[in-house]
């Protein structure tokens, strides 16, 4: 049976990225066959994305986000939409900051290093972010073994 | 998250927290390290064994604390990163800047 996506709606403040994190962990725990590495990689990318949205979309009045998460047989997908203004965001492939002592600027590059797809589009009055990652077939070992 | 500190020898201070090092808790780490530096303990080691998760906000705090420690004449090192933290450090190339040690005592050769 293919399940529909799980959805979380939250407004920051008072909600924060820990609420997103708790939701994602609870949802992924419903899929015990999910490979531990896939889980760790996807959670890292999704929290990075949520942090990015909360930090950059918040102009002082808070931001309302809707997170939709779907765990398929061989793929995990998430969509995050927010009510922020159109920031004129242009998503291009990014590397890590040239200054290795920089204290910011790693978020998008990290997401791109972690997942197979990262997309951004402006839909009506919302920003819509999507990430997707192929997952290892259930039952496969967490670490590949080379003989 | 609350960060706890414990002295090692005369000049090293170990800092430990349990939970997620993210945009919510990053400020507490910065404050804890800033307070430690004012007491003259400028050789900081962050015990990451209880940090189950770090994101780029947490990385920013670690780098900020490293810069503060060096400006105060000391240094900042990390010990015992968990699997997720080690992965994020590696992907962000910060494993070259923040070298990991097996324990807080080892970080400064103790």
Defining traits:
heterodimer, A: 147 residues, alpha+beta, Heat Shock Protein 90, five-stranded antiparallel sheet, 5 strands, 29% helix, globular, B: 110 residues, alpha/beta, Transcription Regulator spoIIAA, two-stranded parallel ribbon, 7 strands, 35% helix
CATH superfamily membership of chain B? STAS domain
Strand proportion of chain A, as a percent range, falls in: 25-35%
Total DSSP E strands of chain B:
7
Largest interface: A-B, 25 and 25 residues
The amount of beta strand of chain B, in percent, is 25-35%
How many discrete structural domains of chain A?
Answer: 1
Architecture of chain A, CATH level 2? 2-Layer Sandwich
Number of helices of chain A: 3
What's the N-to-C terminus distance of chain B?
A: 28 Å
Number of strand elements of chain A: 5
Along the chain, the helix and strand elements of chain A come as EHHEEHEE
Structural class of chain A: alpha+beta
Shape of chain A: globular
Helix content of chain B: 25-40%
What's the story with the biggest beta sheet of chain B?
Answer: 5 strands, mixed
Radius of gyration of chain B: 12 Å
Largest sheet of chain A: 5 strands, antiparallel
Order of helices and strands of chain B: EEEHEEHEHE
Principal-axes shape call of chain B: globular
Describe the structure in brief:
Chain A has 147 residues and is of the alpha+beta class.
Structure explained in plain terms:
The complex is a heterodimer of chains A (147) and B (110). Chain A has three helices and five strands. By secondary structure, chain A is an alpha+beta fold. Chain A has one domain (6-134): Heat Shock Protein 90 (2-Layer Sandwich). A five-stranded antiparallel beta sheet of chain A has the order 1-2-3-5-4. In chain A, a hairpin with a 2-residue loop joins strand 4 and strand 5 (126-134). Chain B is built from three helices and seven strands, in the order βββαββαβαβ. In chain B, helix 1 packs parallel to helix 2. Chains A and B meet through helix 1, helix 2 and helix 3 of A and helix 2 and helix 3 of B.
């Amino acid at each position: 049976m293919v399940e529909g996506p799980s959805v979380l709606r939250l407004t920051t403040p008072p909600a924060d990225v820990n609420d997103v994190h708790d939701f994602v962990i609870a949802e992924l725990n419903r899929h015990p066959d999910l490979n531990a590495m896939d889980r760790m990689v996807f959670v890292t990318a999704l929290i990075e994305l949520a942090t990015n949205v909360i930090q950059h979309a918040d102009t002082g009045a808070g931001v309302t986000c809707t997170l939709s998460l779907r765990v398929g047989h061989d793929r995990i997908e998430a969509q995050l939409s927010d009510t922020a203004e159109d920031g004129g965001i242009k998503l291009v492939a990014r590397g890590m900051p040239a200054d290795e002592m920089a204290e910011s600027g790693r978020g998008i590059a990290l997401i791109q290093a972690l997942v197979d797809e990262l997309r951004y589009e402006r839909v009506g009055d919302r920003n819509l972010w999507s990430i997707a990652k192929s997952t290892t077939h259930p039952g496969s070992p967490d670490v590949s073994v080379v003989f | 998250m609350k960060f706890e500190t414990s002295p090692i020898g005369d000049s090293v201070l170990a800092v430990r927290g349990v939970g997620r090092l993210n945009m919510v808790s990053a400020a507490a780490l910065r404050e804890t390290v800033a307070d430690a530096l004012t007491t003259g303990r400028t050789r900081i080691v962050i015990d990451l064994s209880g940090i189950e998760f770090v994101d780029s906000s947490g990385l920013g705090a670690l780098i900020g604390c490293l810069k503060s420690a060096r400006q105060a004449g000391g240094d900042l090192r990390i010990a015992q990163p968990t699997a997720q933290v080690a992965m994020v450090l590696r992907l962000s190339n910060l494993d070259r800047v923040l070298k990991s040690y097996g324990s807080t005592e080892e970080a400064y050769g103790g």
